[in-house]
């Protein structure tokens, strides 16, 4: 009888992955957000704000908030801030910070 692994290896990219590769702008995929929300009922996690938004809208405020938080990470992690291919820089580019 074959034994089944209790904790399968979690992949972050590729088939079944919940995170975007760095080259595609980092961050979670729509599918990944849906999976997270299924596991955590009541969660308000959302995907990145990537399109055009009206000034002062909820989406614009979320973007502004993310950009402010990630700017703090840029100070905390200068190595990632200098590397244009880091997940932090790619995510900021995707969010249009």
Q: What report would you give on this structure?
A:
- There is one protein chain.
- This protein has 97 residues and is an all-alpha fold.
- The protein has one domain.
- 44% of the residues lie in helices and 0% in strands.
- It contains 4 helices and no strands.
- The chain has helices at 30-39, 58-76, 78-82, 87-95.
- The protein starts with 29 loop residues before the first helix and ends with a helix.
- The model has no long low-confidence stretch (mean pLDDT 87).
Query: Which percent range describes the beta-strand content?
Result: under 5%
| Secondary-structure element string | HHHH
The general outline is: globular
Largest beta-sheet characterization: none
Mean pLDDT: 87
The tally of strands reads: 0
Number of domain modules: 1
What radius of gyration results from the CA coordinates? 16 Å
Low-confidence stretches: none
The percent range for helix content is 40-55%
How many helices does DSSP assign?
4
Layout of secondary structure:
Blueprint: H1 30-39, H2 58-76, H3 78-82, H4 87-95
Helix pairs in contact: 2-4
């Amino acid at each position: 009888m074959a034994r089944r692994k209790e904790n399968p290896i979690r992949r972050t990219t590729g088939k079944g992955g919940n995170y975007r590769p760095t080259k595609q702008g980092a961050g979670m995929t729509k599918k990944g957000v849906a999976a997270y929300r299924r596991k955590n009922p009541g969660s308000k996690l959302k995907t990145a704000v990537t399109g055009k938004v009206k000034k002062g809208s909820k989406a614009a405020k979320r973007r502004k908030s993310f950009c402010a938080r990630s700017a703090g990470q840029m100070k905390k992690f200068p190595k990632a801030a200098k590397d244009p291919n880091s997940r932090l820089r790619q995510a900021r580019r995707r969010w249009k910070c």
